[in-house]
Amino acid sequence: MTPVMCCNWVVHQEVKEIAVVVRDLCRTLAQQGTYFALYTTPTPNPDKAQYVGLDEQVFTVFAKTIAAGFDLGPELKQTTMHISLIKSTMYTFLEKKRAEFNKKHGKASSAASAKDFKNEIKKNPYFRRNEHSL
User: Fold this and answer.
1) Helix, strand or coil, per DSSP, at residue 52
2) Domain for residue 131, yes or no?
3) Residue 91 confidence (pLDDT)
4) Which superkingdom does the taxonomy of this entry point to (predicted)?
5) Domain presence at residue 132
6) Residue 21 included in any domain
7) b/e map of 43-57 (b: 16 or more CB within 10 Å)?
8) Domain that holds residue 73
9) pTM for this model (two decimals)
10) Is residue 108 in a domain?
11) Count of domains observed in the chain
12) Please, which residues have CB within 8 angstroms of residue 134's CB and are 6 or more apart in sequence?
């Protein structure tokens, strides 16, 4: 998140505006991250997931950062609602990115790429370490 990005966001309608923030950040990550569309939101059975699940902690930190940045308060009920909103917004964004990827590269190509990506992570969890940091 940069100051320039943040100046575009003003929270008047909390749910709507948080979704806008999440989509803007996802767009930025997708533009800079080759593998972004191969991730998914956390699932109850990560081993069965087709895509690489993001850690739950990512969403907690994301929600707390947004809440602090927009002075929305640290209450557990609010944080829980923010996490849920962030997850659902990001999930929808990722689904759209995968659909675009499949349209460009062929049906089910995102799933095949995710399988290769998962295998690479299993072989070397740090294989992306030297890439540009998002």
Assistant:
1) strand
2) no
3) 94
4) Eukaryota
5) no
6) yes
7) eeeeeebebebbeee
8) 15-122
9) 0.80
10) yes
11) 1
12) 28, 29, 32, 33
